[in-house]
Amino acid sequence: MSEIKSDIQIAREAKMQPIKDILAKVDVPDETFAFSPMGRHIAKINLEYLDTLKDKPNGKLILVTAITPTPAGEGKTTTSVGLNDGLNKIGKKSIVCLREPSLGPSFGMKGGAAGGGFAQVVPMEQINLHFTGDFHAITSAHNLLSALIDNHIYWGNKLDIDPDKIVWKRVLDMNDRSLRSVKINLMKSSKVSPREDGFDITVASEVMAIFCLANDLEDLEKKIGNITIAYSKEGKPIFAKDLNAHGPMTVLLKEAIRPNITQTLENNPAIIHGGPFANIAHGCNSIIATKAALKLADYVVTEAGFGADLGAEKFLNIKCRKSNLKPNCVVIVATIRALKMHGGVEKDDLGKENLDSLKKGLINLQRHVENIKKFGLPVTVSINHFIKDTNKEIELLSKFCEDLGIKAHLSTHWANGGEGTKDLAAHVSKLCEEKKTNFKYLYESNIPLIKKIETIAKEIYRADKIILEPEVKNQLEIFQKNGYENLPICVAKTQYSFSTDPKLKGAPIGHELPIREVRLSSGAEFIVVICGSIMTMPGLPKIPAADSIKLNSDGEIEGLF
User: Fold this and answer.
1) Last residue of a domain, one of 365, 400, 434
2) By three-state DSSP, how is residue 280 classified?
3) 11, 137, 245, 278: which is the annotated catalytic residue?
4) Is 306 annotated as catalytic?
5) Predicted local confidence at residue 3, as pLDDT
6) Residues 468-482: pLDDT tens digits?
7) Residues spanned by the domain of 505
8) Distance of alpha carbon 233 from its chain centroid, rounded?
9) Same domain, 183 and 96
10) Is 40 a catalytic residue?
11) Domain assignment of residue 323, yes or no
12) How do residues 24-52 score in pLDDT, each as one tens digit?
């Protein structure tokens, strides 16, 4: 039996093409006004060129989502890349649109986010590390605002900012639990008193969310200006624009806002841009990147974070609402391994055939299918194949989907690249061309905020009710009085269950949704509803991935996965 190569080994052996040749596949001219090379295999597309395409019709938009995540793995990114290669393999002009990986997970426990096996985007090392510097620009813009806040207080505090009511933390693109809570202004000579502060990871920054929800540079600057940074001693909200911070912050993001384009292992175009937390924010790549791809290709494959209850719901209710985009179909990724975990199997026993547990776990997939159909969208299932999946298990899952009135496709992209998704690609193409969508949001913008939360809780999570503490209810009422009643809801809860209890697998019903806190993202224009404990600055595991990342004797990077 031949040795199974690691992702980085496969990526390193890839025969990449010059980026101008990749761009030529989607008719981008080899001219300086169209793109700026960032080395031989990466480029940034110029906004001026994209403006020339504004009257061109959009291609078809395919959303890839998944069942509820488990430690067994589901494979959204790998499937997205594989489906894109499959579409190109059957003669369609397709681009995959992904989020940029964060350095925190790359050096922590999760690893990179460039796909896997023979369904990857490359160059893998650059994408998973500094890439084009977008995250550094976002970090700098965010921390410039932090510096301007403290500088304003130092020089007299004309806006009467209450130091105890500053809601803007600092950020760093690294997992570092020691920075969750810090004390600043400790110098004896300081004219201001010490105060409590802290760091979030960069992907949790509201600047990141804004970056990915802005439609253009002007919209970016406007949204940045509307960030709530603090409150005055009289309780009046203070915005970034009150410090004139939106201008210089936008300057720092001027180059970063241009979409990055690279390629898959099969030399098909991949746009990788932005990467907000899929919990505290909406978890999708940038609107600018998605819109660019829709002008350049006939088909665009993109993904949403976590399972469909969090990722797809936010994609459809937040990103689509802000961009006026509408998917043509949805692909739900499922693995037999993960479904067996939802049926009660422990991780160590997943390699054994277990039809009874698979039957029990299928209810999780059914719930996600039902939820997607509530948005009026065609749906299909991709069975992300693992080597120990048995024929009986595959048949059971396929028959279950058939009984739901949808098709399931065994996808072997990890082992076979685009060749392993040709059937899925053909069916997705057919759905996009033949099925009329009746896309609708789950809730209207003009209903009360509490009603929006209840709708998500009952329709998507199947909770019986929401639990609001008096102070949370009061805060929602304040948001409404202050003119934020039309904003969509961004629920932050565990990704491992439809409920707020990560141990409740499958498709629980009859549970309650306790809401601990609500936060206003006035720049990104959504209300964050926090259920349970949400970590916005992760820590490193006992043995982090960083332990095995190094340069070998040939100067090549080892240990990335």
Assistant:
1) 434
2) coil
3) 278
4) yes
5) 67
6) 989 999 999 999 999
7) 449-530
8) 36
9) no
10) no
11) yes
12) 999 999 988 999 999 999 999 999 999 99
- Token pair for residue 449? 């905020």
Name the H helices within 29-174.
47-51, 76-89, 103-107, 124-128, 134-154
For the chain, what is the domain count? 3
* Pair (30, 126) in one structural domain: yes
pTM of the model: 0.95
The helix or strand, by DSSP H or E, that contains position 321, with its residue range, turns out to be: helix 320-323
Q: What's the Cα-to-Cα distance from 529 to each of 444, 491, 499, rounded to whole Å?
A: 17, 5, 14
* Catalytic member of 20, 110, 195, 359: 110
Q: Are residues 234 and 315 in the same domain?
A: no
d(CA 166, CA 239): 11
256 is catalytic: no
Q: Contact 386/79 with Cβ under 8 angstroms? A: no
Distance CA 339, CA 503 (A): 14
Show Cβ contacts of residue 29 under 8 Å, excluding neighbours closer than 6 positions: none
DSSP string covering 436-448, please? PP----SS-TTS-
DSSP category for residue 72: T
For residue 550, indicate whether it is catalytic.
no
Nearest one of 217, 133, 202 to 172, comparing CA atoms = 202
Catalytic residue among 277, 414, 479, 526: 414
Regions of the chain short of the pLDDT cut 50: 1
Closest CA to 265 of 92, 107, 41: 41
**Predicted pLDDT of residue 419:** 97
Whether residue 261 is found in the same domain as residue 243: no
**Res 187: pLDDT:** 87
Which structure tokens are listed for 11? 């990526």
Which of 434, 460, 475 terminates a domain? The answer is: 434
99 as an active site residue: the answer is yes
**Alpha helices, DSSP H only, in 166-310?**
206-213, 217-225, 246-253, 287-296
Residue 429 resides in a domain: yes
Write out the two tokens for 313: 């719901």
The active-site residue out of 35, 131, 135, 306 is: 306
DSSP 243-260: GT-HHHHHHHHTTTTSPE
If asked whether residues 274 and 375 sit together in one domain, one would say yes
Asked if residues 102 and 277 have their Cβ atoms less than 8 Å apart, the reply is no
Nearest to 243 by CA among 258, 262, 224: 224
* 503 included as an active-site residue: no
- 545 found inside a domain: no
Report pLDDT for 176: 94
Residue 315 phi/psi, 5° resolution? -55, -45
Same domain (yes/no): 162, 292: no
Domain shared by 219 and 295, yes or no: no
